[in-house]
Amino acid sequence: MAKLNPYDLYDIDSQLTEEERMIRDSVGRFVDERALPLIPEHFDKGTFPKELVTEVADLGLLGSSLEGYGCAGLNSVSYGLICQELERGDSGLRSFVSVQSSLCMYPIYAYGSEEQRERWLPGMAKGEIIGCFGLTEPHGGSDPANMKTHAKRDGDDWVINGSKMWITNGNIADIAVVWARTEEGIMGFVLEKGMPGFEARAIKSKMSLRASVTSELYFDNVRVPEANRLPNVKGLKGPLGCLTQARYGITWGPIGSAIACLNEVVDYTSDRELFGRPLAANQAVQLRLAEMGRQITLAQLLSLRLGRLKDEGKMQPAQVSLAKWNNVRMALDIARDCRDLLGGSGITTEYHAIRHMLNLESVITYEGTETVHQLVIGRELTGISAF
Q1: Which ranges carry the Acyl-CoA dehydrogenase/oxidase N-terminal domain (predicted)?
Q2: Of 137, 184, 367, 380, which is the active-site residue?
Q3: In whole angstroms, what is the distance from residue 37 CA to residue 202 CA?
Q4: pTM
């Protein structure tokens, strides 16, 4: 019998189309050849590898699941595989693509006017216009209905006041999709860099997502024209719809982190000898590695099924919550265990595990904390909201 792929124990590869495999492999080569040589140094310095943005755009990875406007029009499984391979490199790189695609391009595509789509989406697909997404606020990200940022009509304009927190891409963004409370309900606005009263401040001293830009946004009487308001949605269903798109990609991304950590630790324990034999020859080590393989396999099957449901138009938000909860927890636990198996070497960024472990501490918190997703499933099981 043919030997199993240790990182694809249930032969997920055979369930993919030729196009899906080609996309995964092309992004994988980009990660191996271009991203991984740069990421550790950027992580150490706390800088984003902006030099990769043009290459990411040239691969068609920005807004890849959208149709038209220079976007690739790929299916959902392809987008998931893109996220998996990018996060195999670093969560910060996947976060950049996720925010640009699912949280900025998607709302303009889904909720914007045709004029807005033509104005921004082609440049965003080329990486010439970078976006950020303003929903989370300093007083509590898990309760978006309690947002304080507000917009008031003033003639043909809107005047926005408030602030947003933990905003990926904030300091490098050319536009920000910002959600604000109005007398007519919650609405989305596209703010442009340089608008008077609009300021982005970098969040420093991060120990996680260091190869990513994280910012605070401030709005002090920012005057925004009506032409910059997203006209086709009102209420929380707008931002929550964006989050569902982004969370879907996040169910795939941590699989890449986990595979990177397992691959590294299998090589390390096979090569390192203690007491006359490789570490990998010990039952205690093999039990831990086997558990990692089991958990990765379950996550792969979960995300693949979720992707097929999404392409069939049948995906439910609670199903996304289940996969986000399971897969990020899986990857974080694996990264921590791999760090331990690497011994003293595991605390340096010469190895990948601690970088992935630190990044995943953010991934398990953003786009809905683990607890929020657990409560979503609890509500599905009981019919009772415990929020």
Answers
A1: 17-128
A2: 367
A3: 25
A4: 0.96
